[in-house]
Amino acid sequence: MEKRMADDSLDAAPIRDNAPTNPGRASLGHDGHEHGERCGCHHEHGHDHHDHDHDHDHNHLRPPKYKPGILLAAFGVAIDEARRGYDLFEAEVRQRHPDMELAWAYTAHKVRRKLVSRGRECDSLAVALSRLHDRGVTHLAVQSVHTTPGVEYHWTREQALAYRHPRKGFPEVVVGGPLLSSDHDLERSCQALQGYIPAERSPDEAVVLVGHGTYHHGQQRYLDFEERVRRDDPLIRVGTLMGRPSCGDVIADLEAEGVKDVWLLPFMCVPGHHVHLDVFGSGASSWKSRMEHAGFTVRGHVTGTLEHAPFRAIWLDHLDEVCARIRALETA
């Protein structure tokens, strides 16, 4: 059985709820409408002040029965040149699913605020969900563009599924998992490293992959990934800006190995603020500075996993799976 996070299914199945929206109203002789919103169709219903929302059988008001959409949910980036990975991913998504409405959402509020301060439009997950619903999307595939099933992924999943409702939201919502969702993803990501690590790296040089990290048990996937890659290459280490293994942990481990030369690479979707400052920055607290201070010769490669096709393919396959389930509902 393939190992996944214990508490949750990463590729969430559509949640079906056949219970009445408000059971018991019919027994009170009510007409079945929800009060609180103005209808605007000016029908005679036998009572005054008809302020409620219901579905009249008019072509001009009838929503589409099936209009599929895709929402790509990413941490976000405020550095323009770092968007390359997102742009490459979007182009492939559009190529695979040209008939589906497409939107992005950034889950990091600091990134959104920075972009808004520059006059750039940037939707949160809640805003993007509302916009897609306003555009008439009925069946939504939400694809996590995160690395692990940590806080950002679970926040995305919870918000997306909260918008599932037969009338007030999307009749169906399906969520695709992040990069390292399953053991099979770990295997594929391990293979993807072959083209991610610079070709000029020699076998006696260590490679340190720096992820973002999370204060969630999804952090375990970084440890699982390191365990897997070290079977093939004992000098690869995976550390995280948040949580363990920390920079200090990695330095101590490499010192014990007697390594002198290190390749430092981000293990994040795109090379944004964290990569430029926390990994390669000139400040004393950056990973590069700390490793050099410890006596290592450090070479770096500023990139992101979304810039490399083998990694993108994993996310794309997750998206294809959830889109297939959305499409199957068209004739269900």
Automatic annotation (TrEMBL):
A Pfam family this chain is assigned to: CbiK
Write down the InterPro entries for this protein, in alphabetical order: Anaerobic_Co-chelatase
**Domain of life from the UniProt record:** Bacteria
A GO molecular function assigned to this protein is: sirohydrochlorin cobaltochelatase activity
| Gene Ontology BP, a term | anaerobic cobalamin biosynthetic process
SUPFAM superfamilies linked: Chelatase
Region annotation (Disordered) maps to: 1-61
- Compositional bias (Basic and acidic residues) at which positions? 28-60
Q: What is this protein called?
A: Sirohydrochlorin cobaltochelatase
- In its UniProt entry, the species of origin is given as Pseudodesulfovibrio alkaliphilus
